[in-house]
Amino acid sequence: MMKYRKPRVDELKVVARLNAESFADYPLCDEIRGEFNDQASFVEFLTEVFQVYIGAYYKKSVVFIGEEDNQIKSVAILDRPDSREIGLLDYFGAGAFRLFKTVSIIKVYKFLKILNEGHEPSKGAKKGAWFLESLAVDNSCRGQRLGSRMLTDCIIPYIKRESKGDTLASFVTFTNSELNRSFYTKNGFTEFDYTTIERNGKTIGNWSFKMSVAPAKVKLQVPSSTRVYA
What we know:
Blueprint: E1 3-5, H1 12-23, H2 30-33, H3 39-60, E2 62-68, E3 71-79, H4 88-93, H5 96-102, H6 105-119, H7 123-126, E4 130-137, H8 146-162, E5 169-175, H9 178-186, E6 190-199, E7 202-213
Parallel strand pairs: 4-5
Antiparallel strand pairs: 1-2, 2-3, 3-4, 5-7, 6-7
Helix pairs in contact: 1-3
């Protein structure tokens, strides 16, 4: 049975590696992946970067893991509507100095710059909304609906519990993957923006999604359309 909880600090390395392996083939990583000799060394780099990235969000946002048979199989990073933007001081506080001893600062900068480009189209909708920064599943468990279960059994119920009053809560995320685009649509999100990112002659899609989440005592009316572009 899958259980959801917040990870301990000593588990963040495992959580970081799960993210690294899950996102290693992500379209936005194509440019920087070519700077490594092989996939294994690239995954090691991503693990180090994600450990700092998740460590920074661990203090300011909500991090959940899905655990089954004492194995971490999924992880999500959720920004609250009132969460403060993560800045350089947060990254340094999470161990960026140690990271720069083993990883090229230029490579880290390139990677963070690429991540920021992916976030750009959804920044406006992110204000005052719950924002799903990341949702990753153990590669060996793909096809088991672990991502969908984390949304429906953990993240959305958490937003319902934490939302106050009678106002519908806005829940926003984005992706650069066609596969993930289908995933979010199937899980009740509305696609509200599409842009492209040009990287070294390649065009990468960037889709933004939103969902209205009703607090426990408010009934949500399901919209008739699943795609509305701003």
